[in-house]
Automatic annotation (TrEMBL):
Main location: mitochondrion
InterPro entries in the cross-refs: UDG_fam1 (IPR002043), Ura-DNA_Glyclase_AS (IPR018085), Uracil-DNA_glycosylase-like (IPR005122), Uracil-DNA_glycosylase-like_sf (IPR036895)
Function: Excises uracil residues from the DNA which can arise as a result of misincorporation of dUMP residues by DNA polymerase or due to deamination of cytosine.
Location relative to the cell: Mitochondrion; Nucleus
One of the GO BP terms on file: base-excision repair, AP site formation via deaminated base removal
GO cellular component, one term: nucleus
Record protein name field: Uracil-DNA glycosylase
Length: 280
């Protein structure tokens, strides 16, 4: 078994990579770990070689950025966002998040911050759902907008999404499980505009620079992908429509996913497709 396992490992190696594996450096044979190393290397090189945008970065900032990007494994997103990683604002995000984690409980866990990008590589994106920021309750945030881990009670916003889908999509039945991992693996980019949050404090990280970064993600999808549907639920998400290429005929502004009281004058909500309007 040991020999077979080693043979399988070696088959995944090429050239210098083979030599590294023979020396026991198994990270060289793990695509995900290689991806994380490349992301960190990209940032380090950008800073050390003095790209104008990163000229003032300190060694500590480089370390913070490298640590933050250790959780990003998607090669297509690493390449598409490489310029963003070298900009001063991204170093500011990394420093802020590191300081927050040192002093407070921050959601989601480090390894889940870029989960939406890891589960839905750029080349696989078919639709984009934009949320505001992660859930700030214990055990809720799983790195995907609106989603919660299996076994966690459904938050009101997710209940409302399921309710509207039941009303609008024939045959749709709201699942008891709130994990949207399957959606992500099928090409739905479940992106929060802010990727981290302090426990118990909604929008606490909304001004640290995350939205500049996620705006770049939205632009990358809009510029590089055709026939992508943008589901922009709510007033906050609607503002992101300005980032989408106006030549895209399938970008939609939809009703909000926040829970509403049926007694309000405007009713219980706006369904995702019956009341959608295309961006002009």
């Amino acid at each position: 078994m040991l020999h077979q396992g080693r043979s399988a490992l070696l088959r995944r190696c090429r050239g210098r990579q083979l030599a590294r594996c023979l020396r026991g450096e198994t990270a060289a044979c793990d695509p995900r770990r290689r991806g994380a190393q490349r992301a960190g290397s990209t940032v380090t090189q950008a800073v050390c070689h003095g790209l104008p945008a990163a000229a003032t970065a300190t060694a500590g900032q480089v370390s913070d950025v490298t640590e933050l990007l250790a959780g990003l494994h998607s090669e297509s997103w690493q390449q598409a966002l490489a310029e963003e990683f070298a900009k001063p604002y991204f170093a500011d995000i990394a420093r802020f998040v590191a300081a927050e984690r040192a002093a407070h409980k921050v959601f989601p866990q480090k390894e889940l911050v870029f989960r939406a990008l890891n589960l839905t590589p750029l080349e696989d994106v078919r639709a984009v759902v934009i949320g505001q920021d992660p859930y700030h309750g214990p055990g809720q945030a799983d790195g995907l907008s609106f989603s919660v881990p299996q076994g966690v009670p459904l938050p009101p916003s997710l209940k409302n999404v399921f309710k509207e889908l039941e009303a609008d999509v024939p045959g749709f039945s709201a699942p008891l499980d709130g994990s949207l991992t399957k959606w992500a693996r099928e090409g739905v980019l479940l992106l929060n505009a802010t990727l981290t949050v302090r426990r118990g404090q909604a929008n606490s990280h909304s001004k640290c620079g995350w939205q500049t970064f996620t705006d770049a993600i939205i632009r990358a999808v809009s510029a590089r992908k055709e026939n992508v549907v943008f589901l922009l639920w709510g007033n906050f998400a609607r503002k992101k429509g300005a980032l989408v290429d106006r030549s895209c005929p399938v970008c939609w502004l939809c009703g909000f996913a926040r829970p509403q009281r049926p007694t309000r004058a405007r009713g219980p909500g706006i369904t995702p497709s019956r009341r959608c309007t295309p961006v002009p």
